[in-house]
Amino acid sequence: MLRLDLTNRVVEIVKELRKATGGMVEPASLSVTQKFGKNPFLVLVSCILSLRTKDTVSLPASVRLFQLAKTPKEILDLSIKQIERVIYPVGFYRNKAKNLHEISRSLIDCFDGKVPGNEKDLLSLKGVGRKTANLVLAEGFGVSAICVDTHVHRISNRLGLVATKTPEQTEKELCKILPKKYWGEFSSLLVQWGQNICVPISPFCSRCAIAKLCAKNGVRRKR
Fold it and tell me: Is the same domain home to 12 and 44?
């Protein structure tokens, strides 16, 4: 199966993972849109809270915050200390509380209180990188975008789809081989797979539904 060209192989991976991830907990961003709808601001906030934090911690924190504030103005009505208490124990909660205030102020001052629907303006917001911007575009606006987090970067290299050093390089290479209609779905599937099967250390290769499609690059120990 590894003899398939890269585009055919990545499409086959998507099809296999659609079946294999059934019943797995979905990424926090999908849970937010399912619970609150496709609200770009809520997707943005939940993504900020999820940075360098497990979904099992960041998702409940997002829900707690959304019970108090769902708009930039409502975020600014809360003090930074209040936000800190609500989102604790997400990683870097103090910095994230400050960033949420700065982001909300920028949205009101520069974008009429609305989250911009383009990458350039999203990247101008405090604490927003390419991963966050692409996730907001994909989940908040329904725009085709590949969100490359640590799971997507790691697994894409393990599979042999790319040979890259950084998430930015991975995003660029995936755009070349993955049909655009699969961009958002591919990212979500690999996040689920990375959280449950293709973990960073000693992945569960014996239970992997796409093992036949994987080059296992960099895998030194497996289960």
Answer: no
* Residue ranges in the chain modelled with pLDDT below 70: 1-4
Q: Given 149, 172, 216, 222, which residue is catalytic?
A: 149
Which residue is catalytic, options 131, 181, 212, 216? Answer: 131
- Please give the residue range of the domain that contains residue 197: 6-25+146-213
Structure pTM? 0.89
What is the rounded distance in angstroms from the CA atom of residue 186 to the CA atom of residue 155? 11
Domain boundary among 112, 141, 170: 141
* pLDDT for 205: 96
Task: For the beta carbon of residue 179, count every other beta carbon within 10 angstroms.
Answer: 12
State yes or no: is 176 an active-site residue. no
The reply to whether 131 belongs to the active site is: yes
Quote the percentage of the chain above a pLDDT of 70: 98
Q: How far apart are CA 89 and CA 180, in angstroms?
A: 36
